[in-house]
Amino acid sequence: MVSKAFTFPRSHFIGFDHVWSEIERLSDMSDNKLYPPHNVVRYNETQFSVELALAGYREEDLTVEIKDGILVATGNANSVAEDGPSKEYLHKGISAKKFTRTFRLSEHVVVDGANFVDGLLVIDLKVLIPEEKRPRNIPIGNSDKQLLTEE
Length: 151
Fold this sequence. Notes:
Layout: H1 17-27, E1 38-42, E2 47-53, E3 62-67, E4 70-75, E5 99-104, E6 109-117, E7 120-127
Antiparallel strand pairs: 1-2, 2-7, 3-4, 4-5, 6-7
């Protein structure tokens, strides 16, 4: 049986190029793009963190940046230290390779800081909704109504 790739009529959706790009980026996730393993933790409605497992890296090997709503964590394998004389691995299950890991952030999510402790890079995130977009109670009964009339 031949599998047919799902194609969506892009011509019916105008101005959604960023959505199509994101879908294509997500569908192109190979094993290399899923390294390093990570957790996304929610502490409450407005506080989250992304945890990246990075055994073998040092803090100076890592960078965290945000650009256009995309959180980017990068590790440089070239500077990963090898302790002692050259080693002969009988099994090497701990990877310490160069990586770039990206996460798309919602419009109101900001990075609140990052820490690297015991091989775990924790990037703290916060949802900051602007005052004008927050829900508010509307008092009932004490408003002056002005009717709009067509001229």
